[in-house]
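Researcher: We're teaching a course module on how sequence relates to structure. For the next exercise, students receive a sequence and then see the predicted structure as tokens, so they can try to spot secondary structure elements on their own. Here is the exercise chain.
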Amino acid sequence: VIIAMFITVIGMTTVAYGLHPPRHVETIEPSRVFSDSRFSKVGQPVEMADGTIEVQMVGLMFAFAPAEVRVPAGRPIRFRLTSTDVTHGFLIAGTNANTMLVPGYISQFTTVFDKPGDYLIVCHEFCGNGHHVMSGRLIVEEPK
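Model: And here is the predicted structure for the students to work with:
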């Protein structure tokens, strides 16, 4: 009886999630990331109408593009990220900023850095032989 209930629950959830995929899924052609208009400002922080600073970054073997980004402290920073080749991790060390960069999908999250500093960005998902050297730098500056 327990096995039958288990199989029934698995089957029902499989059908339910298959019919209703997660919302806000944004896709992108991995081979065309740098020519896609949604990633026309890679590495250039852009102030949005709501006051949020948007930063676009791309993960590729074995680097982040760009390798260094500067943002102001105390402002909401929206990261829009994707990968051109394989799955990469994106972790800003010492913070809770953490996501996966999956080819074909755009990852997005917003965070605020309260104090200025120099933050290391690392790939935490094994992406190949050069994975250990894949890093970037986020410089949070005093607001101007």
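Model: If you want an answer key for the exercise: The chain has one helix and ten strands. The mean pLDDT is 91.
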